[in-house]
Hints:
Distance between the termini: 21 Å
Order of helices and strands: EHHHEHEHEHEHHEHEHHEHE
Shape: globular
Bound molecules: the ligand C=CC1=C(C)c2cc3[nH]c(cc4nc(cc5[nH]c(cc1n2)c(C)c5CCC(=O)O)C(CCC(=O)O)=C4C)c(C)c3C=C, fe (ii) ion
Largest sheet: 5 strands, mixed
Strand order of the largest sheet: 2-1-3-4-9
CATH architecture of the largest domain: 3-Layer(aba) Sandwich
Amino acid sequence: MAKxxxxxxxxxxxxxxxxxxxxxxxxxxxxxxxxxDKPFLLRFLLVRGxxxxxxxPKSAKAYESIWWKEGSPLxxxxxxLRDKVQEHFEGxxxxxxxxxxxxxxxxxxDLLQREPNLExxxxxxxxxxxxxxxxxxxxxxxxxxxxxxxYSFALKVVAPYYKHPSYINALxxxxxxxxxxxxxxxxxSYHGIPERHILKSDPTKSHCMxxxxxxxxxxxxxxxxxxxxxxxxxxxxxxxxxxxxxxxQISYQSRLLRDPWLAPSTQxxxxxxxxxxxKKLLIVCPAFVSDxxxxxxxxxxxxxxxxxxxxxxxxxxxxxxxxxxLWVDTVAELVREVDADQxxxxxEN
Length: 349
Ligand SMILES: C=CC1=C(C)c2cc3[nH]c(cc4nc(cc5[nH]c(cc1n2)c(C)c5CCC(=O)O)C(CCC(=O)O)=C4C)c(C)c3C=C
Ligand SMILES: [Fe+2]
Ligand SMILES: [Fe+2]
């Protein structure tokens, strides 16, 4: 058996809620060409001149409102997940963040320190769906550092698991208890992305958003299509929960800049739903496996205010999978299946 190490990779958070730390984090995040895909100079001027200076103080306040004594909820929940996944393996399990700390280099070093004869590293991106601004940039970042450092171990990557039966089961089971309360609809709110990113990620350049009902027609593009993948996740979960089509819908949260983004927007739907007779709402955010700023502040707090202010009567946020047992078992299963090649993305060394 190869001496194996595991890296769980999440998005990352600022080191603290201070404005300079949040500004540094936003600069690194938004200067990523897979997040703001504008030419370098334009991106630089936009991020350094407009977005970061105005957003950092606002975001710092938002982070302050959700911060834990251990630090960022996203990072602490990723650490807790690491500890639970470690119980399944003899080899070391560690974490890395795409932005901020711990970096990929720190993660590789941690694994090597704990297992100097490391032969294989399995990367688990903590994103069920493929998007160039989440899954792809995380994998490419780990891979760039891997190549630069010329490590002798192999690097294998768990593919997007949006339809993996164990993931679907874990997500459905996490929602199930909430369905016994009185509710009108379940809203699946996914992190939004610009429509342009869907087009860019389509290798055929002729399917996504070009063919009617593209997400439902077989295509090679589905391997890298965020909207297709989240649609499938939602439909599989709804089926597992025996929900009819009028009991759920999809929306997209967390927009930035004015480009056309995937629609409908969560914020707009929260304002409209009460007027359409949906007064009691359940809301879940399956693009995230760990609770974070975008769920704890934007959805659980601000979203609730918006919905109740618009005439809603009850609003229940369903937490992310975090350290749920079925989810921990799923992560362990995804890692084991990498060797069976079922959910592995081929990596050239
Ligand atoms: C599904 C995963 C994510 C995708 C896809 C994604 C795309 C994306 N995000 C921004 C801009 C921001 N996102 C921010 C926070 C944030 N985003 C994700 C995940 C995805 N982003 C997470 C998990 C978090 C929370 C991090 C935390 O510390 O808790 C932020 C920063 C916060 C803020 O200031 O509001 C920004 C900005 C873009 C532009 C984008 C796609 C193009
Ligand atoms: Fe984001
Ligand atoms: Fe598509």
